[in-house]
Design goal:
alpha/beta, eight-stranded mixed beta sheet, Glutaconate Coenzyme A-transferase, 8 helices
Length: 272
Protein backbone atom coordinates (compact mmCIF):
# COMPACT_ATOMS: atom_id res chain seq x y z
CA UNK A 1 0.00 0.00 0.00
CA UNK A 2 2.98 2.34 0.44
CA UNK A 3 3.11 4.27 -2.83
CA UNK A 4 5.91 6.72 -2.00
CA UNK A 5 8.83 6.75 -4.45
CA UNK A 6 12.27 8.14 -3.69
CA UNK A 7 12.33 10.99 -6.18
CA UNK A 8 10.46 12.72 -9.00
CA UNK A 9 13.07 11.38 -11.42
CA UNK A 10 12.22 7.82 -10.37
CA UNK A 11 8.51 8.53 -10.59
CA UNK A 12 8.59 9.56 -14.27
CA UNK A 13 11.39 7.26 -15.41
CA UNK A 14 9.12 4.85 -17.29
CA UNK A 15 7.08 7.47 -19.19
CA UNK A 16 8.06 6.69 -22.80
CA UNK A 17 8.24 8.86 -25.88
CA UNK A 18 4.79 9.15 -27.45
CA UNK A 19 2.90 8.71 -24.18
CA UNK A 20 -0.40 10.45 -23.46
CA UNK A 21 -0.57 12.56 -20.30
CA UNK A 22 -3.37 14.15 -18.30
CA UNK A 23 -1.86 17.06 -16.38
CA UNK A 24 -3.59 18.78 -13.46
CA UNK A 25 -3.63 22.41 -12.43
CA UNK A 26 -5.46 25.61 -13.27
CA UNK A 27 -3.39 28.38 -14.81
CA UNK A 28 -0.22 28.14 -12.74
CA UNK A 29 -2.14 27.04 -9.64
CA UNK A 30 -1.57 23.48 -8.50
CA UNK A 31 0.49 22.39 -11.49
CA UNK A 32 2.89 19.44 -11.05
CA UNK A 33 5.91 21.61 -11.84
CA UNK A 34 8.51 19.29 -10.29
CA UNK A 35 7.34 16.24 -12.25
CA UNK A 36 7.18 18.30 -15.44
CA UNK A 37 10.77 19.51 -14.96
CA UNK A 38 11.99 15.95 -14.43
CA UNK A 39 10.19 14.80 -17.56
CA UNK A 40 11.85 17.65 -19.44
CA UNK A 41 15.27 16.70 -18.05
CA UNK A 42 14.82 13.13 -19.31
CA UNK A 43 14.25 14.38 -22.85
CA UNK A 44 10.92 12.59 -23.22
CA UNK A 45 9.26 13.72 -26.45
CA UNK A 46 6.33 13.27 -28.85
CA UNK A 47 3.86 13.67 -25.98
CA UNK A 48 0.09 13.95 -26.31
CA UNK A 49 -1.13 16.15 -23.44
CA UNK A 50 -4.58 16.83 -21.98
CA UNK A 51 -4.65 19.83 -19.65
CA UNK A 52 -6.81 22.87 -19.00
CA UNK A 53 -3.98 25.06 -20.31
CA UNK A 54 -0.32 24.79 -21.32
CA UNK A 55 1.45 26.88 -18.71
CA UNK A 56 3.34 30.01 -19.73
CA UNK A 57 6.41 30.46 -21.86
CA UNK A 58 8.92 29.53 -19.13
CA UNK A 59 6.97 27.52 -16.56
CA UNK A 60 4.88 24.38 -16.26
CA UNK A 61 4.04 22.64 -19.51
CA UNK A 62 5.49 25.68 -21.27
CA UNK A 63 9.01 24.30 -20.82
CA UNK A 64 8.08 21.06 -22.59
CA UNK A 65 6.38 23.06 -25.32
CA UNK A 66 9.40 25.34 -25.82
CA UNK A 67 11.60 22.28 -26.35
CA UNK A 68 9.05 20.87 -28.82
CA UNK A 69 8.42 17.78 -26.71
CA UNK A 70 4.62 18.06 -27.10
CA UNK A 71 3.11 16.76 -30.34
CA UNK A 72 -0.55 17.31 -29.51
CA UNK A 73 -2.53 19.04 -26.78
CA UNK A 74 -6.20 19.07 -25.86
CA UNK A 75 -7.03 22.11 -23.74
CA UNK A 76 -9.65 24.75 -23.07
CA UNK A 77 -7.55 27.88 -22.49
CA UNK A 78 -4.20 28.69 -24.09
CA UNK A 79 -4.17 32.48 -24.29
CA UNK A 80 -1.14 33.27 -22.10
CA UNK A 81 1.49 31.30 -24.02
CA UNK A 82 2.99 33.07 -27.03
CA UNK A 83 5.09 30.05 -28.04
CA UNK A 84 1.93 27.93 -28.02
CA UNK A 85 0.30 30.36 -30.43
CA UNK A 86 3.35 30.41 -32.69
CA UNK A 87 3.70 26.62 -32.89
CA UNK A 88 -0.02 26.14 -33.55
CA UNK A 89 -0.26 28.74 -36.31
CA UNK A 90 2.99 27.54 -37.90
CA UNK A 91 1.81 23.94 -38.12
CA UNK A 92 4.23 22.59 -35.49
CA UNK A 93 1.59 21.57 -32.94
CA UNK A 94 -1.77 19.82 -33.13
CA UNK A 95 -4.39 21.47 -30.92
CA UNK A 96 -7.89 20.37 -29.95
CA UNK A 97 -9.74 23.15 -28.14
CA UNK A 98 -12.51 21.83 -25.89
CA UNK A 99 -15.02 23.76 -23.75
CA UNK A 100 -13.76 23.80 -20.16
CA UNK A 101 -16.74 22.07 -18.57
CA UNK A 102 -16.75 19.40 -21.26
CA UNK A 103 -13.02 18.81 -20.79
CA UNK A 104 -13.49 18.36 -17.05
CA UNK A 105 -16.32 15.88 -17.55
CA UNK A 106 -14.42 13.98 -20.26
CA UNK A 107 -11.60 13.36 -17.77
CA UNK A 108 -13.98 12.42 -14.95
CA UNK A 109 -15.97 10.10 -17.21
CA UNK A 110 -12.81 8.37 -18.36
CA UNK A 111 -11.90 7.61 -14.76
CA UNK A 112 -15.43 6.42 -14.00
CA UNK A 113 -15.47 3.96 -16.88
CA UNK A 114 -18.04 5.95 -18.89
CA UNK A 115 -17.07 5.84 -22.60
CA UNK A 116 -19.05 8.94 -23.66
CA UNK A 117 -21.80 11.32 -22.56
CA UNK A 118 -24.26 13.77 -24.08
CA UNK A 119 -24.10 17.50 -23.38
CA UNK A 120 -25.73 20.64 -24.77
CA UNK A 121 -22.39 22.47 -24.76
CA UNK A 122 -21.17 23.05 -28.31
CA UNK A 123 -24.45 22.27 -30.09
CA UNK A 124 -24.80 24.39 -33.23
CA UNK A 125 -21.08 25.24 -33.33
CA UNK A 126 -17.96 23.71 -34.87
CA UNK A 127 -17.49 21.77 -31.64
CA UNK A 128 -20.37 19.57 -32.81
CA UNK A 129 -20.38 20.22 -36.55
CA UNK A 130 -16.65 19.76 -37.09
CA UNK A 131 -14.23 21.90 -39.01
CA UNK A 132 -12.19 23.28 -36.11
CA UNK A 133 -8.53 23.57 -37.22
CA UNK A 134 -6.49 20.92 -35.43
CA UNK A 135 -3.28 21.37 -37.40
CA UNK A 136 -2.03 23.82 -40.01
CA UNK A 137 0.42 23.10 -42.80
CA UNK A 138 4.10 23.80 -42.04
CA UNK A 139 4.55 27.54 -42.17
CA UNK A 140 0.86 28.17 -41.47
CA UNK A 141 -2.07 29.14 -43.65
CA UNK A 142 -3.64 25.94 -44.96
CA UNK A 143 -5.59 23.68 -42.61
CA UNK A 144 -4.33 20.13 -43.05
CA UNK A 145 -6.36 18.51 -40.27
CA UNK A 146 -9.76 19.56 -38.91
CA UNK A 147 -12.11 18.16 -36.30
CA UNK A 148 -14.72 15.61 -37.39
CA UNK A 149 -18.47 16.07 -36.87
CA UNK A 150 -19.80 14.55 -33.65
CA UNK A 151 -22.93 12.51 -33.15
CA UNK A 152 -25.95 14.53 -31.98
CA UNK A 153 -29.27 13.38 -30.59
CA UNK A 154 -32.45 14.93 -29.28
CA UNK A 155 -33.58 14.29 -25.72
CA UNK A 156 -36.74 15.43 -23.97
CA UNK A 157 -36.16 16.72 -20.45
CA UNK A 158 -39.00 18.17 -18.37
CA UNK A 159 -41.17 18.24 -21.45
CA UNK A 160 -38.66 20.22 -23.50
CA UNK A 161 -36.84 18.65 -26.44
CA UNK A 162 -33.27 19.79 -27.00
CA UNK A 163 -30.33 18.68 -29.12
CA UNK A 164 -27.25 17.23 -27.42
CA UNK A 165 -23.77 16.36 -28.70
CA UNK A 166 -21.96 13.14 -27.83
CA UNK A 167 -18.55 13.73 -26.22
CA UNK A 168 -16.11 10.80 -25.85
CA UNK A 169 -14.38 10.43 -22.51
CA UNK A 170 -10.61 10.69 -22.02
CA UNK A 171 -8.23 8.06 -20.67
CA UNK A 172 -4.47 8.65 -20.79
CA UNK A 173 -1.39 6.50 -20.25
CA UNK A 174 -0.19 8.62 -17.32
CA UNK A 175 -1.43 11.52 -15.20
CA UNK A 176 0.71 14.10 -13.41
CA UNK A 177 -0.89 16.00 -10.53
CA UNK A 178 -0.03 18.08 -7.46
CA UNK A 179 -1.72 17.95 -4.06
CA UNK A 180 -1.56 20.08 -0.93
CA UNK A 181 -1.73 17.16 1.52
CA UNK A 182 -1.65 13.43 1.06
CA UNK A 183 -0.68 10.15 2.66
CA UNK A 184 1.51 7.26 1.59
CA UNK A 185 -1.56 5.31 0.45
CA UNK A 186 -2.31 7.95 -2.20
CA UNK A 187 -5.26 9.71 -0.56
CA UNK A 188 -5.05 13.38 -1.56
CA UNK A 189 -6.36 16.78 -0.45
CA UNK A 190 -6.28 19.82 -2.74
CA UNK A 191 -6.34 23.49 -1.78
CA UNK A 192 -8.74 26.02 -3.37
CA UNK A 193 -8.33 26.37 -7.16
CA UNK A 194 -5.89 23.46 -7.35
CA UNK A 195 -8.91 21.21 -6.85
CA UNK A 196 -10.40 22.19 -10.23
CA UNK A 197 -8.56 19.79 -12.56
CA UNK A 198 -6.14 17.77 -10.43
CA UNK A 199 -8.65 15.15 -9.18
CA UNK A 200 -10.12 14.79 -12.67
CA UNK A 201 -6.73 14.39 -14.36
CA UNK A 202 -5.83 11.81 -11.71
CA UNK A 203 -8.95 9.79 -12.49
CA UNK A 204 -8.19 9.74 -16.23
CA UNK A 205 -4.66 8.37 -15.95
CA UNK A 206 -3.96 4.65 -16.07
CA UNK A 207 -0.90 5.41 -13.94
CA UNK A 208 -1.20 8.55 -11.81
CA UNK A 209 1.81 10.22 -10.24
CA UNK A 210 1.26 12.83 -7.55
CA UNK A 211 3.73 15.33 -6.12
CA UNK A 212 2.52 16.28 -2.64
CA UNK A 213 3.49 19.28 -0.53
CA UNK A 214 2.78 17.75 2.89
CA UNK A 215 2.97 13.97 3.33
CA UNK A 216 1.21 12.21 6.21
CA UNK A 217 1.17 8.68 7.54
CA UNK A 218 -1.91 6.52 6.86
CA UNK A 219 -4.76 7.41 9.21
CA UNK A 220 -3.56 10.95 9.93
CA UNK A 221 -5.85 12.55 7.37
CA UNK A 222 -9.51 12.95 8.25
CA UNK A 223 -11.40 10.74 5.75
CA UNK A 224 -13.97 13.52 5.34
CA UNK A 225 -11.35 15.91 3.95
CA UNK A 226 -9.99 13.55 1.29
CA UNK A 227 -10.83 14.80 -2.22
CA UNK A 228 -9.16 11.98 -4.17
CA UNK A 229 -9.16 8.37 -2.91
CA UNK A 230 -5.87 6.52 -3.09
CA UNK A 231 -7.27 4.02 -5.58
CA UNK A 232 -6.63 6.61 -8.31
CA UNK A 233 -2.97 7.23 -7.37
CA UNK A 234 -0.13 4.79 -8.06
CA UNK A 235 2.95 6.87 -7.11
CA UNK A 236 3.54 9.61 -4.53
CA UNK A 237 6.49 12.01 -4.46
CA UNK A 238 7.10 14.13 -1.35
CA UNK A 239 8.34 17.61 -2.23
CA UNK A 240 11.14 19.38 -0.38
CA UNK A 241 10.47 22.66 1.43
CA UNK A 242 12.20 24.53 -1.37
CA UNK A 243 10.10 22.82 -4.03
CA UNK A 244 6.91 23.62 -2.13
CA UNK A 245 7.81 27.31 -2.01
CA UNK A 246 8.78 27.48 -5.70
CA UNK A 247 5.50 28.75 -7.13
CA UNK A 248 4.72 31.32 -9.82
CA UNK A 249 2.00 33.93 -10.15
CA UNK A 250 0.55 34.04 -13.65
CA UNK A 251 -0.84 37.57 -13.35
CA UNK A 252 0.13 39.82 -10.47
CA UNK A 253 -2.56 42.40 -9.71
CA UNK A 254 -1.76 45.20 -7.30
CA UNK A 255 -3.51 48.24 -5.88
CA UNK A 256 -2.29 51.28 -3.94
CA UNK A 257 -1.96 50.69 -0.21
CA UNK A 258 -4.24 53.09 1.71
CA UNK A 259 -1.50 53.54 4.32
CA UNK A 260 1.29 55.69 2.94
CA UNK A 261 4.85 55.07 4.07
CA UNK A 262 5.41 58.74 4.86
CA UNK A 263 5.48 62.21 3.42
CA UNK A 264 7.07 62.28 0.00
CA UNK A 265 7.35 58.51 -0.26
CA UNK A 266 5.78 56.33 -2.93
CA UNK A 267 2.59 54.38 -2.30
CA UNK A 268 3.18 50.86 -1.16
CA UNK A 269 1.59 48.04 -3.14
CA UNK A 270 0.01 44.88 -1.88
CA UNK A 271 -1.18 41.79 -3.72
CA UNK A 272 -4.89 41.77 -4.45
Amino acid sequence: MDKVVFSAAEAVADIPDGASLAVGGFGLCGIPSVLIRELHSRGTKDLSVVSNNCGVDDWGLGILLASKRIRRIQASYVGENKEFERQYLQGELEVELTPQGSLAEKLRAGGAGIPAFYTMTGVGTQVAEGGLPLRYAPGGGEIVKASEPKETREFTVDGKTEEYVLEPSIVTDFALIRAWKGDSHGNMVFRTSARNFNPLAAMAGRITICEVEHLYDPGELDPDEVHLPGIYVQRVVELTHRQVKDKRIEKRTTRPNPQRAGAGSEDLESED
